[in-house]
Fold these 2 entries.
Entry 1:
Amino acid sequence: MSTELLIKQIFLYPRPFILTGAGVSTESGIPDFRGSGGLWERIDPMEVFSAWAFKHHPEKLYQHSKEVFGTILEALPNAAHNVLGEWQQKRIIGPIVTQNIDNLHQKGGAFWVYEVHGHIRTATCSRCGKTVQDMQEIIKEQETGVVVPRCADCGGVLKPDVILFGDAMPEDYMYAVKMAEIFNHFPQVVLVVGSSLAVSPINSFPLSFEELDIINNAPTLLDQEAYIIINGLAGKILMEMHKMLIDFNGGK
Ligand code: NAD
């Protein structure tokens, strides 16, 4: 399928929804989980990134915090984030619902983002919820050896504000679903970018839309439900679409 068809198709709808996953950020140097070379090839997620693991041995997560969270915090937005950010500023797309925790949509100029798996800007006390600390500071503290950060008030362990396997979904997930319900009052489209759509419950989110289109460099679990699928790199394809849109719009 062509990028020209995709751009004509998504802008048939008033405010296309965007749903992104780890594949939108690989061009920023953050590995995805399931692609080749992905994180899961080296780290057993259930041993490190599950709610159970964090409860019983939080030091395992903090052992990997510099490698995983440090790299993510230092990453810069790529063409895909920048294009989506600009489209949102121009009000030609609706909300961006992201499974990513990396803050890169906001760094790329987006202001309306639902982070359905949380974010790594901060960590919060898992016992009293009062202490909130910057993740940058926590990672810096790890330079002298693994430190499990604790709440100054109650001594509870600080947990990064991301969803671990087995955690409940955060408020942003409920807001994203609610917003989709409102938008879906009229036929609406969702464009998925860089996700295998293997993670539930968010992988059923696209099914509430009239139309699903996908940009991904590998098959996804919802390919059979999609109207348009473009197999390729997110940054390259979104940039092509952006240039086309500017051409259609007389260079503006
Ligand atoms: P996933 O790893 O399951 O799927 C990513 C998909 O993107 C794969 O199909 C891969 O082939 C494709 N892909 C990789 N690079 C691409 C590119 N440049 N262009 C187009 N496609 C590309 O990721 P997911 O569906 O988001 O689910 C995994 C979970 O991992 C999510 O919950 C997310 O929170 C978390 N995660 C987040 C980050 C991040 O914040 N950047 C990184 C890794 C994992």
Entry 2:
Amino acid sequence: MPPIPKRGLNFDFSGKSIIVTGGNRGIGRAITEACAGAGARVAIIYRGSKDAVDVAKQISKENGVEVKAYQCDVSDAQLVQQTFKQINDEIGPVTGLVANAGVSVVKPALEMTKEDFDKVYTVNVLGVFNAAQAAARLWVDSKYQGGSMVIVSSMSSQIINRVGQGKPLNQVFYNSSKAAVSSLVKGLAAEWAQYDIRVNAVCPGYVDTDQTSGMEQSVREHQAGGVPLGRFAQPHEMAPQTLLLLSEHASYMTGQEYFVDG
Ligand code: NDP
């Protein structure tokens, strides 16, 4: 396999300011790096990782653009509104959002609890909505036209993954939360088209991140074997489709899910 390029996406994002939730690690970090590499200022939203501020500083230094980290739990609507306003003042005006922060609970449905439901849905559905609403409010209030948001959903919005011998992966709340996101994307795209705001989803297949690092080797091999390209993705392979959707080149694309699943 030829090396997968990390840099060199030919987008010109100079003048853009983009918020990436969960932008300090995994897929979000790769998207942050690609946006900064294209010349955008980037605000990383993180929940609690100790090194998020240093990650932002490093990406900023490597790309010669402003990248700042903001601690904010996306499930707290009021805090999200405040933080987005602060970002807009400090490194804005914000032009794009990548609502990427997400979590999973893996256990049999017979053992799932209300706490598990809350853990997944308050981030994957409510957190995505909070971020989308806060960005849309900034744009509607300032009469900014052309805002684009990309929600990082999952192939799990459509597919129940198997771990071998016909057994499912046991993440019903994760799967159903991502299916909810599919509908959210379509609904928000329809409502906000009047403000020239576009809303789309990128649906990754398996990606090598902390979320998948705990997978047993046998399960991992089984999963990779089910992917036509025969492997998990690297995080930065989610960046090209995301940047395309954030860019003006995607001016007629809204309300869609784009699968990047090998
Ligand atoms: P990681 O587990 O590597 O990172 C999760 C990120 O989300 C972290 O930056 C974390 O911040 C942030 N986060 C979690 N909860 C909150 C919260 N309440 N408020 C603010 N930030 C929060 O995830 P991935 O990179 O693997 O996944 C990113 C997205 O892609 C998720 O939506 C996931 O569902 C989706 N996805 C992932 C796939 C995969 O195979 N990895 C496949 C398909 C979809 P902190 O570091 O501070 O905890």
